[in-house]
Write a structure and sequence with these properties.
This protein has 356 residues and is an alpha/beta fold. The chain is built from 14 helices and 9 strands. A 9-stranded mixed β-sheet has the order 6-5-4-3-2-1-7-8-9. β1, α2 and β2 form a beta-alpha-beta unit. The radius of gyration is 19 Å and the shape is globular.
């Protein structure tokens, strides 16, 4: 670990200890032009009134006062909003380091130029295959692969850091190496995850895209041979920002609600994008009151409870246990996530070194 990494981790842990929301994800909308079958984001209030740019400006002032440094704009498709540049500008005016999660299909020349001019630290574009036809079939729209990859190149030409993201599924696992190489060929970083979750309301439709045990082994062999570092859970939460180490023996095995949270398009604050604990709404209470409130403390108290199956598990050092999986899929936040156990077993079989 170099000095920079050490200082960064000290910042993250200090923020968690002092309950500083150093990283916040704002889902600007649940609307999206794509129909990706593995998507876990469900809209709790279809047709609800989304926060306005003025409300976001007020919210960003409150987040800055609370100590937030990193802001992620996501969705749905955040670029679906015609006022997204105004919202991004308001965030940058308050000096947040901003990431944007997008499918990339709406990033035409003008929008790319506007976003690049505001200097986000990264634009992360979901691309599901190196083969255009496969990607387009997965998202349910023709021509989207060419739009997304053209947007990536366009942003890179404008000096913006671009990340190509891939959820590895039984639909695209054989494209893993090719997509990695494609991303690197035009100067983008590459992030990937083998985890497919139930939807936020417990729907199990996305699970049909999970890799089989044999496909997981093939995937991890590709990771081991061609790609470093080893994979994390970067698509479900902002792993780089929120949680450098997971405490798998705890019911709340990440730092959700300690140094990070998410805010939905209607102003409701959640510990993360996947944990369904309503902490309060910024249209009804100031963010600081919600963040320090009784419901938030009740959620944090889960970190003191033990996940008995995980506390002394031999797979611990290969496992990135997500408490939302345990809660939504296995019915109890204190249980082991059976899917994370399955993935960890495959990782252990392939890797000679621990992943954590």
């Amino acid at each position: 670990m170099d000095e920079k990494e050490s200082l960064y981790q000290k910042l993250i842990y200090a923020a968690a200890a002092d309950r500083i929301p150093v990283a916040v994800m704002c889902n600007l909308t649940y609307r999206c032009p794509l129909e990706c079958g593995h998507c876990f984001a469900t809209d709790p209030r279809p047709g609800g009134e989304e926060l306005t740019p003025a409300e976001y400006a007020s919210l960003f002032d409150q987040l800055a006062a609370a100590g937030t440094l990193f802001l992620t704009l996501s969705g749905g498709e955040p670029l679906y909003r015609p006022d997204v540049v105004d919202i991004l500008a308001a965030a940058r005016a308050r000096h947040f380091a901003v990431r944007i999660f997008t499918g990339g299909t709406l990033l035409d020349e003008n929008l790319a130029a506007d976003i690049a001019s505001l200097h986000p630290i990264a634009v992360e574009i979901s691309v599901h295959a190196a083969t255009p036809e496969l990607h387009d079939r997965f998202v349910g729209r023709e021509g989207t692969w060419h739009k997304a990859t053209a947007a990536a190149r366009r942003l890179i030409e404008l000096g913006t850091n671009v990340v190509i993201k891939m959820n590895v599924t039984n639909f695209n696992y054989h494209e893993f190496r090719a997509l990695h190489d494609l991303a690197k060929s035009f100067g983008a970083d590459f992030r990937y995850s083998p985890y497919i979750s139930v939807t936020n309301d417990g729907g199990r439709e996305p699970l049909r895209f999970r890799m089989s045990d044999e496909q997981l082994l093939e995937y991890f062999r590709a990771v081991n041979e061609w790609v470093a570092p080893a994979p994390g859970d970067g698509d479900a939460c902002d792993e780089e920002i929120s949680t450098p180490v997971r405490y798998n023996g705890r019911a709340l095995s990440c730092m959700a609600g300690f140094n990070n949270c998410s805010i939905d398009p209607y102003g409701t604050v959640w510990p993360c994008v996947s944990l369904p604990f309503d902490l309060g709404n910024v249209r009804e209470k100031p963010f600081a009151e919600i963040w320090r409130g009784e419901e938030a403390e009740r959620v944090r108290a889960l970190s003191e409870e033990t996940a008995e199956e995980c506390a002394h598990c031999e797979l611990d050092r290969y496992c990135f246990r997500c408490p939302a999986f345990s809660l939504l899929e296995d019915g109890d936040i204190r249980k082991a996530s059976q899917e994370h156990c399955r993935v960890a077993r495959a990782a252990k079989e392939v890797f000679r070194r621990p992943l954590r």
